[in-house]
Amino acid sequence: MSEGVSQADRPQAATAAGSDSGAGPRAGGDLLSKFDPIIHTRETLLAGGVEDPFNLVMEQVLSPTRAICNGRETILLGTYNYMGMTFDPDVIAAGHKALADFGSGTTGSRVLNGTYRGHRDVEHALREFYAMDHAMVFSTGYQANLGIISTLAGKGDYIVLDIDSHASIWDGCAMGNAEVVPFKHNDPGAMERRLRRVPEGAGKLVVLEGVYSMLGDVAPLKEMVAIARAHGAMVLVDEAHSMGFIGPNGRGVAEDQGVIDEVDFIIGTFSKSVGTVGGFCVSNHPKFEILRLVCRPYVFTASLPPSVVATAATSIRKLIGAGDKRARLWANSRRLHAGLRELGFTLGTDQPHSAIVAVLMPDLERGAAMWEALLHEGLYVNLARPPATPANMTLLRCSLCAEHTEEEVGTVLGMFARAGRATGIL
Ligand SMILES: Cc1ncc(COP(=O)(O)O)c(C=O)c1O
């Protein structure tokens, strides 16, 4: 799974004593033996005859909400296609045109031959979308966090961050070599206590997310940003799961809670509501542009293909006026959340906070059985398990799309009811 939380987002390393299985090509010195525990968990799960939840193939994609999986038409409830932009005719046309006009790839870094007109244009679209002075586009959201965090906070600086932060945030902290101080998830008091302990005069960066992707819960940004400011810390918010959807203009949770002007850096991705691939940082900081020359994950990698930046720019501009889609997505999220609760499932949040509705499973075995039963019903959701999930949870993560119809959400609820009864979870 690429998704993840916490510094523990790596397979548990086997101890040296436990790593001499003798089965590898270099028994004793086999560097892969640290993955034995995860190999064992996987083999045990699959030995029960369950389909591999992490190896599904979308044989054909019919629309933002439908695909053929295992030869069968399946409702997609486990993509990040929140705003359903992947098949938007204007987005597709922009991609085709850029592919024809500019070729399939740039074959170079943004700071050498890899900045085309389209890269400038998508940064312009982001500045319009966020009403901010600067935008810098990366090849993925992962690289945006990796690059911006590691470049801002180096040795001797302090990063205070939520313990449930995405893997890309943790990896950015590790790459920059800053002191990393985690605090309890979504707990402003815990955050303040950590900030108080940062030595006088040290550089401080508080890193938060708008929506946390496993449980779909929203951060109390208003309170947290005020605390960070009071302690003289700079603030970075990752709005990967809220861009396009949350806030009056879809700028995210910081906009929704009225603190977007107090945030120094917003990180986002094109791989969710925008419907393609890429990452970005937007900011009003007057010295922001220097980051283009000093940020290694920006400099030392090839830029996005022209077709990708063209689709992203078109999609972002359409998202500015996508109030109807935002309203439909909220309606879908509320309906699914209420319906699943009524059926008796335990959910990640009491109220719908976002387009993610997490259904808690008792353990991995029953979670995998439920995942498979849903797939047989014709529904795809994400099975998420530790270390990606907090507190050792196994959950079925449902993410809604603005293009799901009311009828589809009703069908999904029927599927959950049948699969829940068949697996004994209900
Ligand atoms: C909170 C968060 N930040 C960053 C990313 C990375 O985005 P990308 O898929 O563009 O690499 C993700 C991906 O799931 C995410 O959930």
Description:
- It is a single chain.
- This protein is of the alpha/beta class.
- It has 2 domains: 45-83 and 323-423, Alpha-Beta Complex (Aspartate Aminotransferase, domain 1); 89-320, Type I PLP-dependent aspartate aminotransferase-like (Major domain) (Aspartate Aminotransferase, domain 2, 3-Layer(aba) Sandwich).
- The protein contains 14 helices and 14 strands.
- Helix 5 links the parallel strand 5 and strand 6 (179-183).
- It starts with 35 loop residues before the first helix and ends with a helix.
- The model is unreliable at 1-22 (pLDDT under 50).
- The structure holds pyridoxal-5'-phosphate.
Give the strand order, joined by hyphens, for the main sheet.
4-10-9-8-7-5-6
CATH superfamily of the largest domain: Type I PLP-dependent aspartate aminotransferase-like (Major domain)
Order of helices and strands: HEEEHHEHEHEHEHEHEEHHHHEHEEEH
By DSSP (H or I, 4+ residues per run), the number of helices equals: 14
Q: Indicate the multimeric state.
A: single chain
Hetero groups in this structure are: pyridoxal-5'-phosphate
CATH class of the largest domain reads Alpha Beta
Can you summarize the main beta sheet? 7 strands, mixed
Number of domains: 2
Tally of DSSP β-strands: 14
The N- to C-terminal Cα distance equals: 27 Å
CATH topology of the largest domain: Aspartate Aminotransferase, domain 2
Percent strand equals 15-25%
Mean pLDDT score, rounded? Answer: 93
CATH architecture designation of the largest domain: 3-Layer(aba) Sandwich
What sort of overall outline do the alpha carbons produce when their principal axes are compared? globular
Helix content: 25-40%
